[in-house]
Design brief:
The complex is a heterodimer of chains A (190) and B (653). Chain A has 190 residues and is an alpha/beta fold. In chain A, 42% of the residues lie in helices and 17% in strands. The relative contact order of chain A is 0.19. In chain B, a hairpin with a 3-residue loop joins strand 3 and strand 4. Chain A: It holds the Pfam family Redoxin. Chain A: One of its GO terms (cellular component) is plasma membrane.
Chain lengths: 190, 653
């Protein structure tokens, strides 16, 4: 190849890369495209984390605006956001926890110890704050899968009709609340 | 008032950088020696004002001035004084100010130590550094000032330094990393100046080499200490996560390593010139790209940095200007470059060329793995995630030819070789490496995976090849002491660097293959066994530090009934932010680490504990240290430095 043309190759690669970087800057990387945004909560019937006799279904959650917060004791970012979520709860926001266990994998025949988990959860919540009205235990990650959850923490805003208005991946903080959740909630309350 | 003085000092420094950018470049263009001569004093002045400004930030942090937003965010009155100093670079704004300190210090050093350079080149190098200085200072003053006030309402107490950063490793890791990162701007400036002058001869490589070596040595040390810090502080026993932020420092390191090798070829043989220039530009471009990735929030990282699209946009614009501009200059000039030397396939030139190919491919793998998830999404192909397995797999493939080459290359001579004298030595080394590895692994472990065997054998091969070459060079002289004396420090540095890589490969391979861990819940007096060690849980003490309280689990480690060590693993709660931190207890050893992390208290008086047995984990950092010291040793080599001073001509265009 001609040396002059060859000399242009690095520049061309760089320009191409810059275009992507520029787009990436304005496309929010945390906004993972979820097919569920704007749709209804998937149907589910799952046990309560603290009381296996109690079962929660999507029907029961309807009629109230709430946040669904996907979390786990194994996740340091979840621990970090507990304080802020508790503040939100004190302001009157209803927060439902979706407990997402990372370690347990039924495909590998792992043993699951719900008693130990409850202890762990109680410990963590009593120290760092408990923002949850209750926790749903999604052991097989079926609801999480339907929601398009890719990790923890993730938070969904659901309206009275059970429609998902906001999906946020990453920790919840003042900035995120003001930027993403507060405007959506304001639209709900005329 | 005092924070404002700090800000004002930065404004003055910025004004001086602006002059540093304009005067010498203009002078070099128009042949005005007086303008060019202004460069060194401007560089020095800029440096003094930046350092003054940084001292003020340290002062207001030490005096708990919480009217300043940065201090309120990153420090607190209960923080020990040394961590207060650390907090000045623990947050985004302060880290950028530290970057400026490094940048202007490198610039001042170049100004002082480049007296032997022709004025045209000296002026252009300093002018380019001045331009970079303007870019970063404008960024600091405009959107990232650490001196911003929180008046009239300010907190009575700061939010404390992130507990993760309250560790000795964190005191030295960022400054070292930045030294390296920013130091690569000097190699960049030399490359651009050479392109501007249009003289891409081997003298350029000579001048650039010591600076590149210094930057590279700091970068190596910074990365090594960063890895060690992650291991000892994060409490999960890991040492590399392939996180975008880690990748951001690995990419420039890989290219800088290639650059060091190709600079030597350019200097000694006059070939690879345009390639070497491109590497110098790429190395620094990757530093800027890394900064962009880390500071813009474009990619999700486990490291929580203050991210802000406006800041990201500024860095991207600066990146486009610097990299786009320099690659345009490169495209314009590269066709004029002619190679002088001739060489055949079996030569050191070719082996170093291959070395460069491997290192650049490694960088591209990291770059691809880091950016692909974002590009994939932007192309509308949906979200994907590229995880640790991708990087591990690619690197384990790439390291095989690289390590083999590393054992062969140093024995080759420039231009051409008759291979038939070298083949027997290589064959013997290969056979020996396999025998030693087999004895080592099958003697010590029940299970040996093929990849583990391969990795270990490669490390042994590097040790053997390096030793063979060393012995041969010493034996070629009349007496052994004379033989040792004849080998310059640069040669010893190469030996050290290559052995260091051997240690890294062996450490990574063995610790990945043979690390074991156990999660247990124990009551005081109970014993858990892992490998040949018994861990007896003695109980938990309440501890309290200057700004935290918590629990310490005491575990006695026994081997064959004899006490080895008493481990003391802490779980701290930091008072201000109410954050929990694990301080793992580590009994380090040359052949194995015993690593213990304290978990939660369980209801029945038992505690959750995690025990790790990590063989050879220290070899990685030992290797990293050897590699960095190799760089510093080269700098101590008078011959190496003198080469940059030989041509003292006051040639003015």
């Amino acid at each position: 190849m001609n040396k002059k043309v060859l000399g242009l190759v690095p520049l061309a690669i760089f320009i191409l890369l810059s275009v992507f970087l520029y787009q990436g800057l304005f496309g929010n990387p945390r906004e993972i495209q979820t097919g569920r945004l704007g749709h209804n909560m998937p149907a589910f019937s799952l046990p309560d984390l603290m009381d296996e006799k109690k079962t929660w279904t999507d029907k029961e959650l309807q009629g109230e605006v709430y946040l669904l917060n996907v979390w786990g004791t194994w996740c340091p970012t979840c621990l970090a956001e507990l304080g802020y979520l508790t503040e939100l709860k004190e302001k009157g926001v209803k927060i439902v926890g979706l407990y997402y266990d990372q370690a347990y994998d039924p495909d590998f025949g792992d043993k699951f110890d719900v008693v130990a988990l409850r202890e762990e959860v109680n410990n963590m919540l009593s120290r760092a704050g408990n923002p949850y009205a209750f926790n749903i235990l999604d052991l097989n990650r079926s609801l999480a899968l339907d929601l398009g959850v890719s990790g923890a923490p993730e938070t969904f805003l659901v309206n009275k009709e059970g429609k998902i208005l906001v999906h946020h991946t990453g920790d919840m903080n003042t900035r995120v609340w003001r930027a993403k959740f507060a405007p959506a909630i304001q639209e709900l309350t005329p | 008032m005092i924070p404002e003085i700090g800000y004002f000092a930065l404004v003055l420094a910025m004004a001086l950088s602006l002059l540093l950018c304009i005067f010498p470049l203009w002078g070099a263009y128009s042949g005005n020696l007086r303008l060019m001569r202004a460069a060194p004093s401007l560089a020095l002045g800029q440096c003094l004002f930046v350092i003054f400004s940084f001292c003020i930030l340290i002062y207001i942090t030490l005096t708990d001035d919480f009217t300043v937003s940065y201090v309120a965010q990153n420090s607190s009155s209960t923080l020990p004084w040394y961590y207060k100093v650390t907090s000045t670079w623990g947050g985004h704004e302060g880290a950028i100010l530290l970057w400026l300190v490094m940048q202007s210090t490198w610039t001042a050093l170049v100004a002082m130590m480049s007296k032997s350079l022709p004025w045209v080149l000296r002026a252009r190098v300093l002018g380019v550094l001045g331009f970079l200085g303007v870019g970063f200072m404008l960024y600091t003053l405009w959107m990232s000032s650490p001196f911003e006030r929180l008046l009239p309402y300010y907190p009575v107490e700061g939010r404390d330094l992130n507990p993760l950063l309250q560790d000795p490793g964190m005191i030295i890791h960022p400054p070292l990393l930045y030294m390296g990162y920013v130091g690569l701007s000097v190699s960049f400036a030399f490359a651009i100046a050479a392109l501007m002058t249009g003289k891409l001869d081997n003298t350029w490589a000579k001048w650039s080499r010591p600076w590149t070596m210094a930057a590279w040595a700091f970068l190596s040390l910074g990365i090594t200490i960063g890895s060690w810090w992650a291991y000892s502080e994060l409490g999960w026993g890991g040492w590399w996560f392939w996180d975008p932020v880690e990748n951001a420092s690995l990419m420039p390191w890989l290219v800088a390593t290639a650059l060091l090798h190709s600079l030597s070829v350019t200097e000694k043989r006059g070939v690879f010139k345009s390639w070497t220039v491109l590497l110098a530009i790429t190395a620094f471009s990757l530093c800027l790209l890394g900064t962009f990735i880390v500071r813009s929030g474009i990619i999700v990282s486990v490291h929580a940095f203050a991210t802000d699209p406006d800041r990201g946009l500024y860095i991207l614009a600066f990146l486009a200007l610097v990299v786009g501009g320099s690659l345009t200059l490169y495209a314009l000039r590269v066709s004029e470059v002619k190679s002088e030397g001739r060489y055949q396939f079996a030569s050191r030139e070719v082996s170093l060329w291959l070395n460069n190919i491997f290192l650049v491919v490694a960088m591209l793998i990291v770059l691809l793995g880091t950016l692909l998830p974002m590009i994939h999404k932007e192309l509308g192909l949906g979200a994907i995630s590229i995880g640790v397995p991708f990087f591990n797999k690619m690197f384990s493939i790439l390291i095989v030819p690289f390590a083999l080459l590393l054992g062969i290359g140093p024995m080759l001579r420039w231009k051409q070789n008759k291979l038939n004298t070298l083949f027997p030595k290589w064959t013997i080394n290969v056979v020996l490496a396999i025998i030693i590895t087999a004895a080592w692994l099958f003697g010590g472990y029940d299970h040996v995976a093929p990849l583990t065997f391969m990795g270990t054998a490669l490390a042994v091969w590097i040790f053997l090849a390096t030793a063979t070459d060393l012995l041969q060079k010493v034996a070629s002289q009349a007496t052994i002491p004379e033989g040792i004396k004849r080998l310059g420090l640069s040669y010893w540095a190469m030996v050290l660097g290559h052995i260091g890589l051997g240690f890294v490969i062996a450490g990574v391979t063995l610790t990945s293959a043979y690390s074991v861990e156990r999660s247990v819940s124990m009551k005081p007096g109970e014993i858990a066994t892992l490998n040949e060690y018994e861990y007896r849980f003695e109980g938990v003490n309440v501890i309290s530090g200057p700004n935290y309280s918590g629990h310490a689990g005491e575990v006695t480690v026994l081997k064959e009934g004899k006490k080895v060590v008493l481990l003391h693993a802490e779980k701290r709660r930091y008072n201000v932010g109410m954050q929990f931190m694990t301080e793992a207890a580590i009994d380090d050893g040359f052949f194995r680490d015993l690593y213990l992390a304290l978990g939660e208290e369980l209801n029945n008086g038992a505690w959750a504990l995690r025990i790790y047995h990590k063989p050879y984990v220290r070899w990685m950092w030992l290797g990293g240290l050897l590699i960095s010291f190799a760089g510093f040793i080269v700098l101590a080599d008078k011959r190496y430095r003198r080469s940059s001073r030989t041509r003292s001509s006051e040639a003015v265009a």
